[in-house]
Structures are given as structure tokens and as C-alpha cells.
Amino acid sequence: MATPASVTKVTVECLEFPAVVTPPGSTKSYFLGGAGVRGLTIEGEFVKFTGLGVFLEDKAVPSLTAKWKGKSADELLNSLDFYRDIIKGPFEKLIRGSKLRTLTGPEYVKKVSENCVAHMKSVGTYGDAEEKAIEEFRYAFKDQIFPPGSTVFYKQSPTGTLGVSFSKDDTIPEHEHAVIDNKPVSEAVLETMIGEIPVSPALKESLAKRFHQFFQEN
Predict the structure, then answer these.
(1) The Chalcone isomerase domain covers which part of the protein (predicted)?
(2) Rounded distance between C-alpha atoms, residue 56 and residue 7, angstroms
(3) What CA–CA distance (Å, rounded) separates 56 from 194?
(4) For residues 68 and 211, is the Cβ–Cβ distance under 8 A?
(5) What value does the CA radius of gyration of the chain take, rounded to a whole number of Å?
(6) Residue 25 near residue 174 (C-beta atoms within 8 A)
(7) How many other CB atoms are there within 10 angstroms of residue 63's CB atom?
(8) What is the pLDDT of residues 163-176, one digit of tens each?
């Protein structure tokens, strides 16, 4: 499979998300599907916390083309099914979340895990196994501190494993810090970013615009 010809890097605030990344020790590269800022409105001001980027295995474009080619960027942006097809697609994803402000691991994971649990409960996929997996997920972050520029990476496989790794910059670590083997939890992490109640509307918009271009080439 070939990387989309029009794939380019994206800069989010001071963070650069390259067009293509190859993890250390791997022959597989991932192209940048899109990137955007994550923030919260606090006392009337939009505070930016993280830059998020979603990298995908090359076969993501042909996998999605048949259903979505011919749709405008706006149609993609307004279709939850399009994002769910990315989330549940039969291809690997590598999500990069680089910090713009200092956060502790427990601070960060509390909000992420709450969003994941809320989503799984809303779609009926939250059971004992998912509760245990969320505990493992929270435990992985307990001793971490993320200064500006540091990164959390999530490696998602179509089989449902979620690899979590940490970096002091934007370098992909050689070894994963933890692996959570639970498909609903793995999918929920990306769902909370680009799904029905997204923490990063900017990331959704970036994915829609860029995939519209990729589909035209395919």
C-alpha cells in the first residue's frame, strides 16, 4: 500500500506532526490522517492543553474509499459513521497526544478514563472486563508527569489491544509502557477524541478535510 500522495505535516500551536512516522524497530510507517488542538473553556477562556494527531496504516485509505469517496469534506465532518469507520476500521492507528501545558498522569487519565467509561456505558459495552481494563489504564499513568512537549502515544490494533507509551518529546519510544487488551476500551479512547462528543473538534475537521483529499487521489 502506498502512503497518500498529498499527505503533509500539520503544525498545531508549537507542535509539529510529521506527514509520516515509523516507530523504532518497525518497518511499518503510518501516515498523518489529521491533527488538532484539545482544550477546555475555563471561566470563559479557551485553554489549550494538548495537540492530538492520528496516524494510520496505509491501508486505511483504500479501506474507507469505497464508502466515502465522493463525499465533500463537510459531509464527512457531519457524518458520525465516517469517524466510527476510522475508529473501528481493520487497520492500525497510532495516536499522539503532545502536551501544551504541564499535566500530571493522574490528572490527565482521570478525564480521559471518565470520558471512555461514559461512552461505553452509553453504547452498552461497559462490563466487568472493561472496568478492569480501565483500572489497568489508570494505573499506567499513576507516576507520570507531562511537561510541555512531552507525549502520550496510543497504538491501536484491529484486534483490540491498546499499547500505551510515554516520551519526553515527540520521539516514539521503543517499548510500550503498558498494553491493555480490551477492544471496547481501545476504541473508546479514539471515540472520545473524534466521536459523538469529541474533545477535539479541530482534529475531526482536520481528518475530514485531509481524507476528502486522499479519497480524490485513490
Answers:
(1) 12-214
(2) 12
(3) 14
(4) yes
(5) 16
(6) yes
(7) 18
(8) 999 999 999 999 99
Q: What global pTM score does this model have?
A: 0.95
Residue 171, amino acid: T
First to last CA, the chain: 11
Q: How confident is the model at residue 85 (pLDDT cuts 50, 70, 90)?
A: very high
For the record, the C-alpha cell of 91 comes out as 487497520
Q: Give the span between the Cα atoms of 80 and 195, in whole angstroms.
A: 7
H/E stretch holding 103: strand 103-104
Nearest to 18 by CA among 151, 188, 217, 198: 151
Query: Distance between CA 205 and CA 197 in Å, rounded?
Result: 14
Give the DSSP H or E segment for 30. Answer: strand 30-42
pLDDT single digits (tens) 33-62: 999 999 888 889 888 999 999 999 999 999
Q: Is 142:106 a contact under the CB 8 Å cutoff?
A: yes
Q: Which residues are catalytic?
A: 38, 50, 99, 108
Backbone φ and ψ for 216, nearest 5 degrees, come out as: -65, -30
CA dihedral of residues 158, 38, 71, 58 (deg, nearest 10): -40
Residue 212 dihedral angles phi and psi, to the nearest 5°:
-55, -45
| Lowest-confidence pick of 2-6, 11-15, 47-51, 62-66 | 2-6
